[in-house]
Each structure stands twice: as structure tokens, then as C-alpha cells.
Design a protein that fits this description.
The chain is mainly α. The protein contains 13 helices and no strands. The protein is 79% helix and 0% strand. Helix 3 runs antiparallel to helix 4, helix 3 (83-105) packs antiparallel against helix 10 and helix 4 (112-122) crosses helix 13 (301-344). The protein is globular, with a radius of gyration of 24 Å. It starts with a helix and ends with a helix. The mean pLDDT is 78.
């Protein structure tokens, strides 16, 4: 009898090790599912609680915080313009111009769909795109370079393209004053986090690791931002003064969806090998805030609805990407867990 005791001890230890491996694998799988589920909850909360639009003032601060965290871990030596960056800029401008002209050809008499296509397609890369790239484990430096280039390019092209798109001479002090005001807001949203991040890394060199250590906080911030943006969209759609009929809402929603799909596909096609997902994200994820402002100022609330709904489409695609990544990580974790169990046994 005493000789069998060691075998029983080994068997018990093996069982406990297997149980721990299974529990750890399931815990990782559940954690991976939280991100896409949280994003879908943000859409639902935004739709049913348009009162949350009063928190719209927090959106720029959410963006600044996310960019600050991204820039902390940024390797500036990896940044550099590539051929695909210039193609992305050309497509960024071209999709807006082509979409506007296409709607005119199809008989958009009042110009609402043409204006919606123009403002939706012309929006530069979203300031939150680098943060999403980090969630997707892609090269953040590539996306940051594209963000800076498209923002500058759209800012320079907008004064010339806007009068053409609206068939009006929108020049004068009022136009350029508003343009400089919005351009200044966009620049401060990007430049301020860069300066703050570089100063922080200079004072605390170890802060470069904060990007990875606190990536969950960055995601929670992004989820809150999407919730507030969804609340704003819901408030706009439900406001009777905006006269958003079901028919025009459907047309603009489909137009916005078409532009979103086109952007992500074209971005993927023009990217260099190994950078196609980054290129797709750079062209597809849009900073619609500035375009919503200009559409409301120079066109109409209906034109502003195009970039507003685009937020739903590109964030939905982000949710699908996160879901795919969660499944991929889950399979890798399961394979590793199985390998550990085999080694233990």
C-alpha cells in the first residue's frame, strides 16, 4: 500500500494542473469577448438614451487621452511616409469628390445626397485610429503617419472643394474664419497629446510601457466616446426639427455604408505587403466630427447625417475586427492550454 501513495499524489497534481489550465483558458476567452460586446452595448445605449448628447463636450478629451496613451509607446524611428500614404490621401479626396458627382448624375435634385457623399467621403483619418490599431495589434506608427497626412491634406483642400461641392461661392471672412477655427481644433487635438507624451517620456522614461500596461483603460475610454457619439446621432435623428424621414434616412444610411465599404476595401488594396490592414484602417476609419460641423454650417442637417451615420458603420467594422481577434486569440490560447495539459500528463 505505501508504494501506491506517490502515484496518487502525481495523479492529483496532474488533475489540478489540468483544471487550472482549463479555467485560465476560459477566463481568457471571456475577457476577449468583452470588447466587441461592450462596443455593441455602446450603440444600444446611445440609441435609446439620446439625452447623453449633453456630454458631447467630453469627446475631444476622450480622443486626447487615447492619443496621449498611444503616443507614449510610439516609436518615432519607425514613422515615415510610404507610397501607400500618398495613395490613401488621393483616395481620401477622390472618394468624396467622386461620390458627390455620382449622386448628381443619378438625379439628386436637391443636392442632399451629393452633399452627404462629399462630407462623408472627404473626412480625414480618425484621431482614434491609432488607438484602434493598437487594440488590433497592428503597426501604430503607420496609422499615425497617415492620420497626420490626411488631416493636413483635407485641411488644405477643403476651402477649394467646398464651394464646388455646394455649387455656391462660400468664400469670404466668415468661411475662412470658420475653417481656421475647426482646423485649429483638429490640430490641437493631435498636437497637444504629442507634446504631452514626449514631455512625459522625457521626464519618466519608463512611461513608454504605460501604453501596454493600461491598454484596457484606453479601450474603456473609446467605448465611452462611442456611446456619447451614438447619443448625438440618436438625438439628431429623433429631433423633429431636422425633418429626417424614413426614406431619406435609409438613402443616406446606404450611401454612407457604401462609402465605408469602399474605403476599407480600397485601403486594403493600396497597402504594402504586411501593412494592408493598417492601410485599410487609415482610409476607412474617419474623423467625422469636423465634417459634421462643416455640413451643418454650409449645407444642411441632412448632409451632416452622412458622416454621422458613418460613425456607426466604421465602429461596427471595428467590432467585427475585435471579435475576429478575440476568436483567434481564443484558439491560440486553447492550443497552448492543450499543449500544457499534454506536457503535464
Amino acid at each position: 500500500m505505501p508504494e501506491r501513495a506517490p502515484a496518487r499524489v502525481v495523479t492529483d497534481a496532474t488533475s489540478r494542473a489540468r483544471l487550472l489550465c482549463v479555467c485560465w483558458s476560459k477566463a481568457r476567452n471571456m475577457a476577449a469577448m468583452i470588447r466587441p460586446l461592450a462596443l455593441m452595448c455602446a450603440f444600444v445605449v446611445g440609441w435609446f438614451f439620446p439625452q447623453g448628447a449633453v456630454l458631447a463636450w467630453t469627446v475631444p478629451w476622450f480622443v486626447r487621452f487615447m492619443l496621449f496613451m498611444v503616443f507614449l509607446g510610439l516609436n518615432v524611428h519607425k514613422m515615415g511616409l510610404k507610397r501607400s500614404h500618398f495613395l490613401i490621401l488621393a483616395l481620401n479626396l477622390g472618394v468624396g469628390v467622386f461620390g458627390c458627382e455620382l449622386m448628381r448624375v443619378f438625379g439628386d435634385e436637391q443636392g442632399e445626397l451629393a452633399a452627404a457623399a462629399f462630407f462623408t467621403g472627404l473626412a480625414p483619418t480618425a484621431t482614434a485610429a491609432p488607438a484602434i490599431a493598437s487594440f488590433l495589434k497592428r503597426e501604430v506608427e503607420y496609422v499615425v503617419t497617415g492620420l497626420l497626412l490626411t488631416t493636413l491634406g483635407v485641411a488644405l483642400a477643403l476651402p477649394a472643394l467646398l464651394p464646388w461641392a455646394l455649387n455656391v461661392e462660400a468664400g469670404g471672412d466668415a468661411f475662412f474664419g470658420a475653417f481656421l477655427h475647426v482646423a485649429g481644433n483638429v490640430a490641437s487635438t493631435i498636437v497637444a497629446p504629442i507634446i504631452a507624451a514626449r514631455l512625459t517620456r522625457w521626464i519618466y522614461p519608463s512611461s513608454a510601457s504605460w501604453t501596454a500596461r493600461f491598454k484596457n483603460w484606453t479601450f474603456y475610454t473609446w467605448t465611452l466616446m462611442v456611446t456619447v457619439i451614438s447619443c448625438r446621432a440618436s438625438e439628431f435623428i429623433h429631433d423633429p426639427s431636422n425633418n429626417v424621414s424614413s426614406s431619406i434616412l435609409l438613402h443616406i444610411a446606404l450611401l454612407s455604408l457604401g462609402i465605408c465599404v469602399t474605403n476599407f476595401l480600397l485601403g486594403f488594396c493600396v497597402g504594402e505587403k504586411g501593412l494592408r490592414e493598417e492601410s485599410s484602417q487609415t482610409l476607412g476609419q474617419k474623423n467625422t466630427g469636423a465634417m459634421i460641423y462643416f455640413a451643418s454650417l454650409y449645407a444642411s442637417p441632412l448632409a451632416a447625417l452622412g458622416p454621422t451615420i458613418y460613425v456607426l458603420w466604421h465602429n461596427s467594422w471595428n467590432a467585427i475586427q475585435l471579435q475576429y481577434l478575440a476568436i483567434k486569440d481564443s484558439r491560440q490560447s486553447h492550443s497552448a492550454s492543450s499543449a500544457n495539459q499534454e506536457s503535464v500528463s
